[in-house]
Amino acid sequence: MSNVKLAVIYYSSTGTNHQLATWAKEAGEAAGAEVRLAKVKETAPAEAIASNPLWQKHTDATRDVEEATVDLLDWADAIIFSVPTRYGHVPGQFQQFLDTTGGLWGQGKLVDKVVSAMSSAQNPHGGQETTVLAVYATMFHWGAIVAAPGYSDPVLFAAGGNPYGTTVTVDQEGKMVESVEPAVRHQAKRTVEVASRLLK
């Protein structure tokens, strides 16, 4: 699987999806892929970020993380997205990034990319599943190959049993409620394995 190029792309305001993405990056590397971790550009006003101490802290801590570009999508064989839910949908920052991909899409360069998605919200039924499915809706337009985890490993049940992609609940202090690290790592490994099979 050493020939698989994996992009792990996330948007995170207070750090949860950055952590999910970091675990995915590590698991992708352990599976033998060449991995690049990148964040979606922050478009919120500085005043909004400063109004939330956790948001400001995370923004400062991740200033040096590569920003996601369409060139990164072109480079990748496989892509894992990790985004929080906003009213059962993706954040505006992430949607804006997706809206820049029309050029690649028009050239057919997003066809057969292997993709998988993860999400988070502040309560167990806060829209995580619909957020993951919203990501996949765009992927269907790309002609990408969705590598959802399904029920392919028992670790998924400890994480809440979401077959679409790993999702996590975050409490008011910004801490993850479910133990999802093993599920994230499994999902990343599976994504690399599917991409490897497709490349062969």
Automatic annotation (TrEMBL):
<feature type="domain" description="Flavodoxin-like">
    <location>
        <begin position="6"/>
        <end position="192"/>
    </location>
</feature>
<dbReference type="GO" id="GO:0003955">
    <property type="term" value="F:NAD(P)H dehydrogenase (quinone) activity"/>
</dbReference>
<protein>
    <submittedName>
        <fullName>NAD(P)H dehydrogenase (Quinone)</fullName>
        <ecNumber>1.6.5.2</ecNumber>
    </submittedName>
</protein>
<dbReference type="GO" id="GO:0016020">
    <property type="term" value="C:membrane"/>
</dbReference>
<dbReference type="InterPro" id="IPR005025">
    <property type="entry name" value="FMN_Rdtase-like_dom"/>
</dbReference>
<dbReference type="InterPro" id="IPR010089">
    <property type="entry name" value="Flavoprotein_WrbA-like"/>
</dbReference>
<keyword id="KW-0560">Oxidoreductase</keyword>
<dbReference type="InterPro" id="IPR008254">
    <property type="entry name" value="Flavodoxin/NO_synth"/>
</dbReference>
<dbReference type="GO" id="GO:0010181">
    <property type="term" value="F:FMN binding"/>
</dbReference>
<comment type="similarity">
    <text>Belongs to the WrbA family.</text>
</comment>
<dbReference type="Pfam" id="PF03358">
    <property type="entry name" value="FMN_red"/>
</dbReference>
<dbReference type="InterPro" id="IPR029039">
    <property type="entry name" value="Flavoprotein-like_sf"/>
</dbReference>
